[in-house]
Amino acid sequence: MDEESLNDENKKEIDQGLVNGIQLTLEKIEEEISRVKLELAKSGLVSGGGINLHGRLKDLKTEEDEEGKTIEGVFDGQQMIGPDGKRYSIPANYISKSKLVEGDILKLRILGDGTFVYKQIGPVDRERKVGKLVKDDEENFGVMIGNRIFRVILAAVTYFHGAEGDEVVILVPKDIDSKWAAIENIIKASSSF
């Protein structure tokens, strides 16, 4: 080999090493940007304000008969709030399976034996968004879209076998600022076709 060929080979090795170094640096910068966005979102400076649920409660009713009690309420992202302001727990698997979003109107039937039966009676308009699944310091999952993080129910993440970094399709109330989102689907980050 002549000296010129060796120089070309050395340049290629140096160039590839430089490219690899730049790629690693960019990955670290992207991780740091994600971490900072997560911290900002956790601080409340850029998160959603949540829906004004009290305005939606005024037209809801409560009825009682010999078979039990029926209460209408508004879903706040985790629970149903009744017209009297009382909170009613909802099984996480029902929330995730029904893809409830903040502002949905629910009817709760409490039977004589204490059984709770929920039914969604007034879904709000929804829109789809795509983001990245992230986890905070307390191991809570959220979906980051831009500088916003939407909170999500853990049952939905586990149902779809979600992991930090996965791409997530969520449902949020249309034209309303919300804190919570329903997971519609998760696209694994490690998926290859």
TrEMBL record:
Superkingdom field: Bacteria
Protein name from the UniProt record: 50S ribosomal protein L7/L12
Organism taxonomic ancestry: Bacteria, Candidatus Komeiliibacteriota
